[in-house]
Amino acid sequence: MIYEIIIIGAGPAGMSAAIYACRKKLSTLILSKDIGGQTAKSWEVENYLGYSLISGVELSEKFKEHLDQFECVDFKLGAEVIKLKKISKVFEIITKTGEKYQGKTVIIASGKNPRQLNVPGEKEFWGRGLTYCPTCDAPLFKDKVVAVIGGGDSALKATYQLTKIAKKIYLLVRDEKFRKDLDKILLENTTASDKVEVIFNTSTIKISGDKFVKALEYENLATKEKKKLEVQGIFVEIGSIPAVEFCKNLVKLNQGNEIEIDEHNMTSVPGIFAAGDVTKVIEKQTIIAAGEGAKAAIAAANYLSRQKQ
Ligand code: NDP
Predict the structure, then answer these.
(1) Distance in angstroms (rounded) separating the CA atoms of residues 134 and 118
(2) What is the pLDDT of residues 96-154, one digit of tens each?
(3) Residue 44 pLDDT exceeds 80
(4) What is the pTM of this model?
């Protein structure tokens, strides 16, 4: 079967695209490793239209319930796409387990993956005290001393979340002060807690322990002094990398490896569209990803009807 639209990813962009594709009565396939993407890993989502506050898991479930009302979608959960290529007039997608799917159009909504520190001990202690997912793992650190690494909104959010659980939180920021573009309310709430100790000018150099994490070593970038913090948990929140491995040689990317799109969400390859955090769209927010997914599906539907004429 050749689908009219194949959507890669089931975060807010992918699910919203699928709903709009169904409204246009197009045969649609979603291929995704998981449901909800980064939204499902968010402890709380604030100000998604209609909800002043909702957990990321609950919001993702609501997206899925909404999508389930439509019958035109085939949903392959657990599918990891490893290759996207153009064969004559159709696109072929290959998954890690070797399945092949063909579509007349594709919407890439694969989101981003967490950036890693690449320091000794990181791989070894991943899942043994070191985590990239505060929402999943913060409850494991009740009354413990932990470190959060990063200076963006994600690091602030993780730290704020941990103020309700952990005993003490070191927030290790690489810059010499907080960035000006941070969410002001989040910054105020996070730094107001006396459980939080912010350490600027830090570069993590090593993570150590035995069965579990026991310490983190960092260098003070101003003084070059090396220090060790005794911690039982480490939350790495240093941004994320677009999930473009499967299409990086096909569609044009910008310098940050985000997919270049035009105002109709079309990539450099006609028939391939992209939406959400994997694209160059500036604000990475659930509500924006959902809107972008809708736009991409409408554009793909218009593209298909032009092809038929
Ligand atoms: P960002 O890219 O905004 O921030 C990444 C941070 O990690 C920077 O402070 C960066 O430091 C630091 N960093 C990068 N590499 C390293 C390293 N090797 N060691 C130490 N520090 C490092 O990513 P975020 O995930 O924080 O945010 C992504 C987007 O999502 C943003 O647009 C943000 O606003 C949005 N967001 C919004 C939230 C909200 O509640 N409104 C919550 C979470 C995210 P440096 O500056 O030195 O490069």
Answers:
(1) 19
(2) 999 999 999 999 999 999 999 999 999 999 989 999 988 888 989 999 999 999 999 99
(3) no
(4) 0.82
Cα angle value 240/21/285 (rounded, 5°):
25
Rg over alpha carbons for the chain, rounded to the nearest Å, is 21
Residues ≥6 apart with Cβ < 8 Å to 301: 5, 20, 21, 24, 26
Task: Out of 46, 47, 174, give the residue to mutate to test ligand 1, the one with the largest number of ligand atoms within 8 Å of its CB.
Answer: 174
Whole-number Å distance, alpha carbon 149 to ligand 1 midpoint, is 10
Name the H helices within 73-151.
122-125, 134-137
Q: What count of other Cβ atoms lies within 10 Å of the Cβ of residue 306?
A: 8
Distance CA 172, CA 103 (A): 46
Residue 277 near residue 3, CB atoms below 8 Å: no
Type of residue found at 58 = E
CA of 239 to the centre of ligand 1 (A): 4
CA dist 127 and 109 (Å) reads 27
Could you tell me whether strands 51-54 and 45-48 are parallel, antiparallel, or unpaired per DSSP bridges? Answer: antiparallel
SS3 148: strand
Question: Is 72 in the active site?
Answer: no
Strand-pair category, 168-172 with 145-149: parallel
What residue type is 85 in one-letter code? K
pLDDT digits (tens, 9 = 90+) for 51-75: 999 999 999 999 999 999 988 899 9
Q: Decide if 136 is catalytic.
A: yes
Give the separation between CA 151 and CA 258, rounded to whole angstroms: 21
Residue found under tokens 């270049």? 260
Q: Are 100 and 92 a contacting pair, CB within 8 Å?
A: yes
